[in-house]
């Protein structure tokens, strides 16, 4: 900068632009000027004119004015030649520089993260009044280095955590696939066992039906044999009855013939022996009485034989009827048992089918729960990984 070049001073009276937050503007100005002392910061807002920068060239003055205006401060650029007059009045303040000085800087926002960084401003040939570097700034730089190291360690830990969570996600996926495969295998085994059980019950039902049909056929044959035997017995009884009836009739005929012969003989004796008529009549009456008694006895015996034959016939018919009823009852019992077995087999088949359906539903529900649980774990891990990556990205951006 030549000796005759015009310079400018940057002054500030503690005024803040409208609709700006006072505390935020103060903190940004302190950060911009690297002021850690609260008392020195309060001097800037005391209402007196403070020279923030002195002897600035036009370009540097415009850059500082723009950045301080963006911070919310109402600053003013004045000609440096006016400072001598204002200093003579004794109503201005100027920050006291230290021996250690820093180059003038400007703040620019990065496009990636929006954070601000300091960029050194070009210096002119002429000297510039610069803000001092305090011990607090050195301490802050030391803390920043420590924080950078801590952020680096945190980023490494985050990367390790992401790797661990990734391995855990892979392991959970592998376990979930194994669990799903096991459930599917168990489902297939249960389905196969249920089908085998249904096939076995079907074979049992078919065997039961065949056995029932065989028993019914055997009972029908027994019934037909019993009917033929009963008919033979009835024919034999009828033949015996006819024979007994014929024999009784022959005996009656014989007695009647004997009676007639006796009567003829008696009549002859009466004609021949009238003297003995009374005696002979008595004898004839006695003989007649005896013959009548014999006839009555024969008739009674014939009736008794007939009754006995009837009783025998009844005794034979009753067992036959009882046996027929027993056969019928047995057949009905077998039919009822067969129907009951069929109902039980149907009920058992239905129970097995329902049990199979319930087991399939339970296995499907277990599979669905396992998939949901696995999905929840995977979502949680994905969120955790995304959060860790976001933290790592923010840490990297902050660094």
Arithmetic mean of pLDDT = 78
CATH class of the largest domain: Mainly Alpha
- Overall body shape: rod-shaped
| CATH architecture descriptor text of the largest domain | Orthogonal Bundle
The major pleated sheet works out as: 4 strands, mixed
Structural class determined from secondary elements: alpha+beta
Number of domains: 2
Low-confidence stretches: 90-113, 115-138
What oligomeric state is this?
single chain
Number of helices: 6
State the end-to-end CA separation.
37 Å
| Run of helices and strands | EHHEHEHEEEHH
Concise overview:
Helix content is 76%, strand content 9%. It has helices at residues 22-33, 38-44, 58-71, 81-89, 135-272, 277-398, and strands at 8-16, 49-56, 73-79, 92-93, 105-109, 116-120. It has 399 residues and is of the alpha+beta class.
Structure description:
The chain contains 6 helices and 6 strands. Strand 5 (105-109) and strand 6 form a beta hairpin. It has 2 domains: 8-133, no CATH class; 176-395, Helix Hairpins (Orthogonal Bundle). It starts with 7 loop residues before the first strand and ends with a helix. It has 399 residues and is α+β, with helices and mostly antiparallel strands. 76% of the residues lie in helices and 9% in strands. It has helices at 22-33, 38-44, 58-71, 81-89, 135-272, 277-398, and strands at 8-16, 49-56, 73-79, 92-93, 105-109, 116-120. The protein has a 4-stranded mixed β-sheet with strand order 3-1-2-4. The protein has a two-stranded antiparallel sheet with strand order 5-6. The longest helix is centred in the middle third of the chain and has 138 residues, at 135-272.
């Amino acid at each position: 900068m030549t000796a005759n070049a015009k310079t400018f001073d940057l002054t500030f009276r503690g005024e803040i632009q409208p609709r700006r937050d006072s505390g935020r503007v103060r903190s940004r100005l302190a950060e911009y000027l690297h002021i850690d002392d609260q008392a020195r910061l309060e001097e800037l807002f005391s209402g007196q004119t403070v020279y923030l920068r002195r002897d600035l060239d036009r370009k540097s003055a415009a850059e500082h004015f723009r950045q301080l205006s963006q911070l919310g401060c109402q600053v003013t650029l004045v000609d440096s030649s006016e400072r001598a007059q204002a200093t003579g009045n004794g109503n201005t303040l100027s920050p006291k520089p230290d021996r250690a000085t820093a180059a003038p800087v400007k703040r620019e926002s990065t496009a990636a993260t929006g954070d601000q960084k300091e960029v050194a401003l070009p210096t002119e040939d002429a000297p510039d009044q610069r803000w001092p570097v305090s011990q607090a700034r050195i301490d802050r730089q030391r803390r920043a280095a420590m924080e950078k190291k801590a952020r680096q360690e945190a980023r490494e830990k985050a990367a390790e955590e992401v790797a661990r969570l990734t391995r855990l996600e892979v392991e959970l996926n592998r376990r979930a696939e194994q669990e799903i495969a096991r459930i599917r295998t168990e489902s297939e085994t249960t389905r196969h066992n249920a089908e085998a059980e249904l096939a076995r019950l079907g074979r049992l039902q078919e065997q039961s039906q065949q056995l029932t049909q065989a028993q019914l056929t055997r009972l029908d044959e027994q019934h037909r044999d019993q009917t033929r035997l009963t008919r033979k017995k009835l024919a034999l009884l009828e033949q015996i009855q006819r024979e007994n009836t014929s024999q009784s009739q022959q005996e009656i005929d014989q007695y009647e013939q004997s009676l007639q012969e006796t009567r003829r003989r008696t009549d002859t004796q009466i004609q021949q022996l009238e003297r003995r008529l009374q005696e002979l009549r008595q004898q004839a009456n006695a003989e007649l009485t005896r013959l009548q008694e014999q006839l009555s006895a024969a008739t009674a015996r014939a009736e008794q034989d007939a009754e006995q034959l009837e009783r025998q016939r009844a005794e034979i018919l009753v067992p036959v009827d009882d046996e027929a009823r027993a056969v019928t009852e047995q057949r009905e019992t077998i039919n009822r048992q067969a129907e009951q077995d069929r109902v039980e087999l149907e009920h058992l088949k239905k129970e097995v089918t329902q049990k199979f359906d319930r087991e399939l539903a339970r296995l499907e529900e277990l599979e669905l729960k396992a998939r949901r649980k696995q999905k929840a774990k995977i979502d949680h891990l994905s969120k955790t990984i995304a959060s860790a990556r976001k933290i790592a990205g923010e840490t990297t951006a902050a660094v």
